[in-house]
Every structure is written in structure tokens, then in C-alpha cells.
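Known limitations

C-alpha cells in this collection are predictions and should be treated as such. Users comparing against experimental data should check residue numbering before alignment. To illustrate the layout, the record for SMP-30/Gluconolactonase/LRE-like region domain-containing protein is reproduced below. The input appears on top and the generated C-alpha cells appear beneath it.
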Amino acid sequence: MEPKLIFYSNSQLLEGPRFDLEHNLLYFVSILDYLVYCYNPETQEILSINLKSPASCVFILDFKIILVATKNGFYEVNFNTLSSKQKFQIDIPENVRYNDGIEDPKGRIIIGTMGFPEVKENVGKVFSYHQGSYKTLIDHTTISNGLAFSLDQKFLYFIDTPTKKVARYFYDIDTGVAKFDTYVIEFKAEGAPDGMCMDNKGMLWIAEWNGGCVSNWNPINGHKIQERKLPCPNVTSCCFDKYGNLYVTTAKSESETDAYGGGLFYIELTNN
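Generated C-alpha cells:
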């Protein structure tokens, strides 16, 4: 099936798709527009809230209530009332912003940073935040991106985009400590890995910046299984819905063949 364009509003950089399986809602952000969106696939209603600084990723709290990481801190956003309030902030330098994030099974927020407004080498980190305190999990990153847990929760997979690799870390659920193990996937073509998610078979789906696709990989042996093309070069992230199909965010590029870069796409992988 060809990718279906779901939403387009001329955004520069859509990112951070997160699907609420319980309530059948999709959340995503337009980083440079400071916007977070809530999309209902059944009604096709799209709501948005402006958070006044770059918004990077979403953590689900309740029905239409989420936590959003912005440069100015973490905000609780309520799409029932179209309101937001700041909850906390991690002590990050002025020259970075948050990027990709994930929640571990114990409720810890794991989130990376990157240089902003300019990307700078090794100024990023990956933090773990829980109940008012935080610590550094991974240091000296450049563009902290995709994060995913193995199905048995023993490993954390992580992408620092300029490395063009997927790293695997031993992850201790009890202590929340990550220890580098090895690199499991290396991208040798033009595309660089960006956001990612894991399917119910333990395989990784990775958005490829400047690669025009989401690619499917086996993290055990590092082999590429398949890829799904999109009509724009810069693919930023992806997540699964309740049917096992993919929502995919993209960004604009300077390519003349870029069709709807900065749009939200839907890729059917199953027959529902």
C-alpha cells in the first residue's frame, strides 16, 4: 500500500508521533512551530496547542492529557480543555533543546537533547527523570534521537543520528541505569537513522532522514528486512497504531522531488 497523507499544514519539522492505544488517539509535534497535535483517526478531528518554545516529544498521561517536552520545560497539556501548565524542568544549557524521548516500564522519562539553534558536536545528553530527580544516562551525544526498549526490557536501543548507527545498552529496570553494550545496526547508504519504534516481533522500524523511507531491521543480527518509501526525503519518526500500521512524521527538504515534506503519513502494514 502507498503511504497515505493524513495531515499537512506546511510545517518545517513534524516529529514525535505517539499513539495512545487505550483511547485510539495520535499525538505529534511541529517542533519549530511550538505546536503539539491530537488526532482522532475515527473522526479525523485534529486539535493543536501552542507551547511557546520548540516542542519535541509526548508522554501519555490520560484521556487527551499528555506531558510534552519543550525547550522551556515539561508541560501537562489537556486537550479536553485546550489548556497547558508547566510541571517541571531539567537543568539544561541554553544552547540545547529536547529531542526524542520514551518512558520506561517503571514510569521514568528518558529524553535526549541536541544543540539548538545550531547543532553542535557532543553537547547533547540522554537524561532519565523520575519523581522530581534526574540523572544522565548517556553523555556526549550530538543529535539524540530514536529510543526503543527490547520486548524483554533488558536492552535500550538508541540512535545518535550522525553516527549512522543504532547502539544497544544493557538496561536495569530496577535502577534505571544504562550501560553501553555494542552497536547493532549501521546505515551505509545515504539515509541517516532518526526516530524509531519496535514492533511486536522485536524488530525495529527506523525513520531515515535524507533516506525517504522507514526501514525495518532485525536488531539481533543487524540485517535489514524491508523498507517502505515515502514521497519526501526527510523522514523523522514513526509509531504503531492499534492495527499494527505506522504513522510517520516527516520534515521539509530542499529537494525538488519533495512531495509534502513536513506532513503526517499513514502506512498500512496489515490487512486490519
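For this record: The chain has a mean pLDDT of 96. The chain has one domain: 4-267. Please report discrepancies through the issue tracker.
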